[in-house]
Amino acid sequence: MGFDIKVAVDGIAAVASQYYPFILAGLALLLLFGSNRVRDGIHKALTDNWQLTLLASTGIALSLASAYTTFDGLRNFTSAPLLSVFISFGIQGVMLIVAWLIGESFAVGMNQRTIWTRYYTPGSLYRAFAEHFALEHRRGICVFAPPPYLTWVRDRHPDTYRRLWRLDRRFGGWPLMRALGDHFLIVMRKR
């Protein structure tokens, strides 16, 4: 007799739907009496850029719901429930990321205003200059290492931080990896 994932997820959903007032009250107490960091983070997300927070939380909630229904359908066709879970959440993860990247436009909160920003990929930036420049080299930056604004990671975990940067330097120039970084370096030569 194995572990039935469907029964476990249905049980969790049943408990959550039956006791949702207590769960919401617990979350409210966590916000009121929890750590300042959690409270400040939620307050900042809801006041500085509430549209982006709403968009992200809605996207995640819909992806989770869709992954569950996809899992339920796949479970009927496979005899491996764990495989169904991986496939379902993998599909939904890819769809969530692609939906986020469509249009390559993002809302950035700055000085209590929303600024719509376009983030170029290395390929799209090079195409804009391809007529007059030849591509010499490109690499991803912060593929494994945390982005520069997360200075607390460097301060609290210096050994891990150094290891992540070592991975970044070693693999950041590999195909596919160079497009995954938070930033990129592209070197072009005038034709």
Q: What does this entry look like structurally?
A:
Helices cover 61% and strands 15% of the residues. It has 191 residues and is an alpha+beta fold. It folds into two domains: 5-110, no CATH class; 120-190, no CATH class. It has a two-stranded antiparallel sheet with strand order 1-2. The longest helix has 26 residues, at 50-75.
Low-pLDDT windows of residues: none
Q: What is the CA-atom radius of gyration, in angstroms?
A: 22 Å
Number of helices: 8
Average pLDDT reading:
78
Largest sheet: 2 strands, antiparallel
Summary of the model, kept short:
Helices cover 61% and strands 15% of the residues. The strands form two sheets. A two-stranded antiparallel sheet has the order 1-2. A two-stranded antiparallel sheet has the order 3-4. The mean pLDDT is 78.
Features:
191 residues, alpha+beta, 2 domains, two-stranded antiparallel sheet, 8 helices, 61% helix, 15% strand, extended
Task: Write the topology of this structure.
Elements: H1 5-18, H2 20-33, H3 36-48, H4 50-75, H5 81-101, E1 105-110, E2 113-118, H6 122-129, E3 133-141, H7 151-156, H8 158-171, E4 183-190
Antiparallel strand pairs: 1-2, 3-4
Helix pairs in contact: 2-3, 3-4, 4-5
